[in-house]
Amino acid sequence: NNFFSGVIPPKLGANSPLVEVDFSNNSFVGDIPPNICSGKALRIFAMEFNLLNGSIPSNVADCPSLEHINLRNNKLDGPIPQFINCANLSYIDLSNNSLIGDVPASIGRCANITMMNLSKIKLLGGIPPEIGKLVNLTVLDLSHNSLQGTLPVQISSCSRLDSIDLSFNSLNGS
After folding, report:
1. In the beta sheet, which residues pair with residue 64?
2. How does residue 65 score in pLDDT terms, banded at 50, 70 and 90?
3. Residue 153 to residue 49: CA distance in whole angstroms
4. How far is residue 99 CA from its own chain's centroid?
5. Which residues, including other chains, have CB under 8 Å from residue 174's CB and lie 6 or more apart?
């Protein structure tokens, strides 16, 4: 916590070999720089506990080097981006934001995810069956959303799952 505030420079990351960006626990406002991962070298992206708003840039979900993304406790809105190049992603926390929409089925492309926290972000719809492709998943938190439907049977493929929290949703089934 450095008590930084203001807007993050919009060109941060543009054509840059940034490997780690950690601006956690500050008071930054505004948008996440749109080219934060354009250098395709970013491994750790942590901006939790700020006042960021706007949407998550699509290149964050199309960053082949990215291993860790933590954007929890901001004011981000819009949909969760479609995951395209996420083979190295192992940790994702987008909790406590104003994101809205579905859990993207493309999350199934991120087979190395071990921890996923999408709680308290206004998720709608159902849990996609592609969640079963996350065979390394140990922690899944989708609590405090508006998810509906049944738990997909494919989740049983997540044999390493230690903790799952689906509380405070509208899921049903037997």
Report:
1. none
2. very high
3. 35
4. 10
5. none
pLDDT in tens, 101-135: 999 999 999 999 999 999 999 999 999 999 999 99
Q: DSSP of the chain, one letter per residue?
A: ----EEEPPTTTTTT----EEE--SSEEEEPPPTTTTTTS---EEE--SSEEEEPPPGGGTT-TT--EEE--SSEEEEPPPPPSS-TT--EEE--SSEE-BPPPGGGGG-TT--EEE--SS-B-S---GGGGG-TT--EEE--SS--EE---GGGGG-TT--EEE--SSEE---
Residues forming beta bridges with residue 101, ordered by sequence position: 123
- C-alpha 127/C-alpha 22 separation (Å) is 30
99: buried, middle or exposed (CB in 10 Å: 19+, 13-18, 0-12)? buried
- Rounded distance between C-alpha atoms, residue 174 and residue 155, angstroms: 15
